[in-house]
Structure formats: structure tokens, C-alpha cells
Amino acid sequence: MKFGWQIVLGSIVGFFGAAFGSVGGVGGGGIFVPMLSLIIGFDPKSATAISKCMIMGAAISTVYYNLKLRHPTIDMPIIDYDLALLIQPMLMLGISIGVAFNVVFADWMVTVLLIILFIGTSTKAFLKGVETWKKETIMKKEAAKQMESNGNSSADVEYKPLPGGPTNGPLKDAKDCEVTVFENVYWKEFGLLVFVWVAFLVLQIVKNHTATCSTAYWVLNLLQIPVSLGVSGYEAISLYKGRRIIASKGEDGTSFRVFQLVSYCTFGVLAGIVGGLLGLGGGFIMGPLFLELGVPPQVSSATATFAMTFSSSMSVVEYYLLKRFPVPYALYFTAVATVAAVIGQHVVRKMIIMLGRASLIIFILAFTIFVSAISLGGVGISNMIGKIHQGEYMGFENLCKYDV
């Protein structure tokens, strides 16, 4: 590994990508992949593999940071374990499907899908941010009037609402929001998530040692379905019968219809397919999805990152076994992303406490997705034009003839 201007510039871009990506709960892969390809000069496969390492580093440090925090208005962790348990197994299944689609689909199809999807989700997230900002403004004005009627100066108001939260009540003191990591982990739910991770990892490793499209290959692929459906189905049935609740949604998280639960699981698979297809974390879909479900921005970001930690780490182990990336570069950029994620979380959390605007998270989410659409879309279009000039085949590929 040689230090030069490429490494310096790549480190700066990677730093800001990880900082914004960790705060928005999207990982930052949409910024990492173009940076590694265009600035550092890696081929697409190596860039995707190192990007996954960076996403994993940023996600692990963000989760560790979040494990010490409590929900701003409810007495629960900032990570919603029940929501993660419902979505994460389906996310893992979707990633496996998405990786296969990535082989079959032509590059131009992936690029077009990426641009449409990312511009759509970033626009949706931005509008949600504007709506949340307006709610915050109204609440701050109401709080100021209430303080004035009680004889206090409006300058002393420290009302910090949590838009989209179940109570819209004031934030607890920031010092009260921190507890030890062990108090904040729901061990049963965490154990189930680890079980899914281990099961999928074993199936993927064994699958990589079988011939593509052989009987064993398809059996191992199909075995992923009962693992993911079993865990997500257990959580869905528990939510439907009221044995469990998605606490971060408050009263709305206590009763669910079958259609709702099926929709959530379907979106989890969709997030995974998009993540696997584009070589990114599923946070680009999960972040906006959780916001639409009515989950508060802080919880949405923390839970999406938590779920991404499992999927990205599984990809990293697979890529390492396949020798897809040079280890020194991977370690360096993972360290950059890890440090950036913690700094980004710390700075934005202080800003939210100071300004009382949780909508900052939503705007960062929208901005990160939009920048990713421009950067990844630009790289994809450039590659597409190059292939057209060279007269390369641009149709569907045969999965069974693909060599990893």
C-alpha cells in the first residue's frame, strides 16, 4: 500500500461518506464504491468488497455507540430489537437473491434501476424531513407560549421534541439517555439475530465450494428460506398476537394486521435484493421505510445500521475467503470509516440536543442517498458508454456460467 494524493483524497471522501452514511443509517456504500473505483483505481469487484469492509467498520462502531443510548422519549434502547428481528432475516434472504440478480442483470439495467430508485427514495426522505421540520417548529412555538404563560422567558425554552415519535414529548436530559451496553442489549432477540447470521454464513461458505447450479448449490440456496422465514415468522406471529410490540412506535406498535406484517417482511426482502444487486447496504431502503412506518429518526437510523452490521459483516467474511480485496487497503479504509462514523454520530447527536431538531437525521439521509445516486449513476453511465463504443454484449448473463 503506497500513500499518495489518491489515498489522501480517498480518505477525505471516505471519511465524510462514512460520517453522513452512519448518521443517516444507510452505510455510505454509494459514496465508497465510486471513490474506490475513480480515485484509488480499484476494479469494480475489489471496490465493492472494500466498500463492504468500510460499511461494516462504520456500522460496528455506530452500533457500539448506539448501544449506550436510550430512546429519547420512551424507556427502551435506541435500537428497536423487535423491528430488527422482523426485518433483518428477510434482509439477509434478499441479499442472497440480489447477488444472483447482479450476475444475471446487465450493467445498464442495474444503473437505470439505481438512479430511479435512489432519486425516488431521496425525494421521499427529503419531503419527510420538511414535514418533520414543520412539526418541530409548531411544537417549539407551542412550548415557548406555554413557558411564557408560566412566567418564564421564551429564551429559556429547552423543548426538544422528537418528531414522528409516539408521544412527541420533550427529550429527556442527554445524560439520562446513556446507560451501560449490557443494560441496552435484549439478549434473546440478539441471540436470534446472531443465529440467522451464522446460519446464512455457513450456507454461503459451503455454497461457494459447490459447483454453480449443481443440486447441492440449489439445495443450499433454498435452505436460506426456512431460516429467514422461521425467525421473521416467529416475530411476526408474536407481534400479531400481541406477545411482542414494536415499542418505538408507541401505541401504534401494539396492534398489527396480517397485511402490515407481510408488507414489512416484503420490504425487508426488497431492501436486501437492492443491496445485493447494487453491492450496497440495505439501509438505502430500510432508512426511508422505517421513517414511513412512523419510527422516530434516531431509532430509524440506529436500527437500520444495526441490521446492516449483520449483512455487511457476512459479505466481508465471504469476500475475504474468496480473496476479493487486498487486506492492507481494506484495513486502512475500514479504520477511516470506523473513526468517521463515531465522530459523525457524536457531532450530529450534540446538534440535535442543542437545536431540538431530529429532522437533521432525515435531511442527512436524503442528502446521502441523492449524492450516491449521482456518483454511482455517473460511474454506471460512463461504463455503459464505454461498453457501447467497444461493442460489448449488454444483455442478460447466464448465472450457471458465472465464475466467482
TrEMBL record:
InterPro entries: TM_pro_TauE-like (IPR002781). Its main location: membrane. It is a multi-pass membrane protein. Pfam families: TauE (PF01925). GO terms for biological process: protein ubiquitination. It is found in: Membrane. Keywords: Membrane, Transmembrane, Transmembrane helix. The chain crosses the membrane at residues 7-40, 46-67, 79-102, 108-127, 190-206, 218-240, 261-290, 302-322, 329-348, 360-381. GO terms for cellular component: Cul4A-RING E3 ubiquitin ligase complex; membrane. Belongs to the 4-toluene sulfonate uptake permease (TSUP) (TC 2.A.102) family. This is Sulfite exporter TauE/SafE family protein. It comes from Rubroshorea leprosula. The lineage of its organism: Eukaryota, Viridiplantae, Streptophyta, Embryophyta, Tracheophyta.
